[in-house]
């Protein structure tokens, strides 16, 4: 099972992502959703209710989340030997140049701005899924 972790605090954006990517990540893939940065770190460190979960093959991370911001989650991931190889896509409606530069400096694979209309959002999600689950080679299960 290939897990994609979506860290997104907006229920409407989560729903849009799930609708847009219902089949795009392919068979044997599932999207796990967390709604804030602390929950994302709990999932990644397999703490609490996430004990024993499989680590995701890909993380899709919003910048502006409650409790712990997305860029702080990214920084903590890239400092952790077990998590730093997991590719992280920053998918955010924010377009601040400082956030974009910081995301890349910390180790994001890419920074994607959320499109405003559903059709463009769907195309973006499908492009992400095609590239990350069909084009690149991700690390094997350990």
- Spans of at least 5 consecutive residues whose pLDDT stays below 50 are none
Largest sheet: 5 strands, parallel
Q: For this structure, what is the CATH homologous superfamily?
A: Response regulator
CATH class descriptor: Alpha Beta
Structural class: alpha/beta
State Rg. Answer: 14 Å
Distance from first to last alpha carbon: 13 Å
Overall strand count: 5
For the record, the CATH architecture stands as 3-Layer(aba) Sandwich
Overall mean confidence score, pLDDT? 90
What does it look like?
The protein is α/β, with parallel strands linked by helices and about 140 residues long. It has a single domain (about 1-130), classed as Response regulator (Rossmann fold), CATH 3.40.50.2300. About 40% of the residues lie in helices and about 20% in strands. It has five helices and five strands, in the order E-H-E-H-E-H-E-H-E-H. The chain has helices at about 10-20, 35-45, 70-80, 95-105, 120-135; strands at about 1-5, 30-35, 60, 90, 110-115. A five-stranded parallel sheet has the order 2-1-3-4-5. Helix 3 links the parallel strand 3 and strand 4 (about 90). Helix 1 packs across helix 5 and helix 3 (about 70-80) packs parallel to helix 4. The longest helix is centred in the C-terminal third of the chain and has 18 residues, at about 120-135. It is globular, with a radius of gyration of 14 Å. The two termini are about 15 Å apart. The mean pLDDT is about 90.
């Amino acid at each position: 099972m290939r897990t994609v972790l979506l860290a997104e605090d907006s229920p409407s954006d989560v729903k849009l992502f799930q609708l847009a990517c219902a089949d795009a990540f392919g068979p044997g893939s599932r999207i796990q959703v967390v709604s804030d940065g602390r929950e994302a770190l709990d999932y990644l460190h397999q703490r609490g209710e996430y004990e024993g979960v499989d680590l995701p093959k890909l993380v899709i991370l919003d910048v502006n989340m409650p409790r712990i911001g997305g860029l702080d989650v990214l920084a903590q991931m890239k400092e952790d030997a077990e998590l730093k190889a997991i590719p992280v896509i920053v998918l955010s409606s924010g377009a601040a140049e400082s956030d974009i530069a910081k995301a890349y400096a910390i180790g994001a694979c890419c920074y994607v701005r959320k499109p405003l209309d559903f059709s463009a959002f769907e195309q973006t999600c499908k492009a992400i899924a095609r590239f990350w689950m069909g084009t690149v080679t991700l690390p094997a299960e350990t």
